[in-house]
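Data deposition worksheet. Section B asks for the primary sequence of the deposited chain exactly as it was used as input, without tags or linkers unless they were present during the calculation. Section C holds the resulting structure in token form. Section D is free text for depositor observations; keep each observation to a single sentence. Incomplete worksheets are returned to the depositor.
Section A, Depositor: J.P.
Section B:
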Amino acid sequence: MSAQDTAPGGGPTDEPTEGSSAGLSAEAVVRLRLAIGRLNRQLVRASGDQDLTAAQLSALARVEQHGTLRLGELAAREGVAVPSMVRTVGPLVAAGLIGKTPDPQDGRSQLLAPTPRGRDTLARIRRERTALLARRSARLTDEQCRALEAVLPLLELLLDEPAEPSKPAEPSKPADPTEPAGPADTPGDTRPTP
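Section C:
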């Protein structure tokens, strides 16, 4: 735990938000947040030789996921303003990961699509991150592996805010920003997390 995660006595300093009081205990919420955050950082480091920011990786994966997109469509899907997306996509185009072509329907607009190099980069990152998780899970017992598999649908429920707070969320397949998605893998326009 980092200094910001613990109190002087060694316990968690963060208190869950008001909405979490009916769910997990305060300690469990903090442990879950820390475990997910640490695992995410380790996954990012597993593919550390790439110079992409989280926003750039998410944009690249989103373009691969949805095919050719206009810049405004990509910005909307990522939940950011167009000027922010311009700054995000610029380095991807410069690095040859995303290509731009004129939009045949609107000469003022350009279409974005992943290049073969962009697809290869995403595939490599997926392989590296999957390899890390495979190595880590290999040290678990069969019983622990089954328990982890059983909890995956619950973790996937945490990916999205429910439409109505009073209704329980339905399990859906997560929209991993580095994973290709089919129609069943797109639970709306929630922004994927690298």
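Section D:
The first helix runs from residue 26 to 46.
The beta strands are 69-70, 98-103, 106-114.
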